[in-house]
Design brief:
- This protein is 37% helix and 15% strand.
- It is an alpha/beta fold.
- Helix 1 packs antiparallel against helix 8, helix 2 packs parallel to helix 8 and helix 3 packs parallel to helix 4.
- The longest helix has 18 residues.
Length: 366
């Protein structure tokens, strides 16, 4: 079976982890500092802080946006629950915007109609790595004095108008979870616009204390309650090794994506829209089909894994209080009833990707 996801394991990772453990310094320290610097250089934003998950990054972003009980967050329903649960846990009311079924991304026209005096933030996800309309979303936010949070879990290596994702909005959250482009087993990062915000984030991720404080760390006054969200040396040393391969990994995803776009040709398959002003990191390759189960069974019989990956968050019982009628979310209804993802990652051989294209092109629903 050609897998939909595969964990990238750099050579030497076992020895590197063992060396960290034998050093006795396994928590935040030398390697987390080095990985943080390396990652910030890659995304071209020095205002970058490592954390222990993308969910933690979004939790910090929620705090930075000042979100509390009764505030509203306009967000996409088409994502992992990790995008929306942090806002919900802070007491926010989730306001579901519609999505563009040709991209899977949040629809700015829908967002604009949902703004109220209670709106505190807009949250969007770069579906499959394809950047959403960042400028338009930020324009709406600026007009109303609210913040924008990008969930960039799919988008490490994506660019928008010539700049890496991580530079365009108030807070941009990345994931190093097991099946992302690079993994630290689990982990994440949050980028912000200003050094002032980054300093506050670095304090929030560690109980409200300054880890770099000169003198006894425990003599500091805590002026704002924080979290235990920092990344440790064990995860960070894995991240450092991953950074040696990141260009090759991202390039392979993009090359395979381009191969599929050029060669998949089946009237029963709809490919996703791409935009000239951005470049996707191609974490997954999404297609739209009329019968998802039939397509998935067909792909399985031909030795190719496929899966929807994420489902509409507005259908989860935990979010019952925020439900909207399907007639209000026609794009989400269309996309979520038809979307399916096929392998596009660095692990595909030439014969693998040719087999995937041939199989998709032969698909003929009953």
């Amino acid at each position: 079976m050609i897998p939909l996801f595969k964990v990238h394991v750099p050579n030497g990772v076992a020895k590197a982890v063992a060396d960290v453990w034998h050093s006795g310094f396994v928590t935040e320290g030398e390697y987390s500092d080095k990985f943080e610097h390396s990652f910030s250089q890659y995304v071209e934003n020095n205002n970058t802080s490592l954390v222990n998950s993308c969910t933690s990054a979004i939790s910090i972003a929620s705090r930075m946006c000042g979100i509390g009980h009764g505030d509203e967050v306009i967000t996409t329903p088409m994502t992992c629950m990790a995008t929306n649960e942090p806002f919900f846990n802070d007491g926010a009311k989730l306001i579901w915007a519609d999505i563009d079924p040709s991209t899977g991304n949040i629809d700015p026209d829908s967002v604009r109609k949902l703004i109220t005096p209670k709106t505190k933030a807009i949250a969007g996800v770069h579906w499959a790595g394809q950047p959403f309309e960042i400028d338009e979303i930020n324009k709406i936010a600026s007009e109303h004095g609210i913040k924008v949070v990008e969930d960039a879990a799919h988008a490490l290596g994506s660019t928008y108008k010539g700049r890496p994702i991580g530079n365009h909005s108030d807070y941009v959250c990345f994931s190093f979870q097991a099946i992302k482009h690079i993994t630290t087993a689990d982990g994440g990062a949050i980028c912000s616009r200003t050094q002032e915000d980054d300093s506050r984030i670095k304090s929030l991720r560690w109980f409200g204390l300054n880890r770099k404080y000169k003198g006894s760390k425990w003599e500091q006054d805590i002026v704002e309650s924080g979290f235990k969200y920092h990344m440790n040396n064990t995860n960070a040393v894995i991240g450092l090794l991953q950074m040696e391969h990141i260009e090759k990994i991202i390039k392979a995803h993009k090359d395979n994506h381009g191969f599929f776009n050029e060669n998949i040709d089946n009237k029963h398959i709809t490919k996703m829209k791409t935009n000239d002003d951005s470049e996707s990191a191609c974490w997954i390759y999404t297609v739209l089909v009329e019968n998802r189960k039939e397509f998935q069974d067909y792909m399985t019989r031909n030795g190719i894994a496929s899966d929807p990956v994420h489902m509409r968050n507005d259908r989860y019982t935990v979010f019952n209080d925020f439900r909207r009628d399907d007639k209000d979310l026609p794009g989400a209804l269309e996309f979520c009833s038809r979307h399916m993802n096929i392998p596009v990652g660095w692990w595909l051989s030439e014969s693998d990707r040719k087999h995937i294209v041939d199989t998709v092109n032969r698909y003929n629903p009953s």
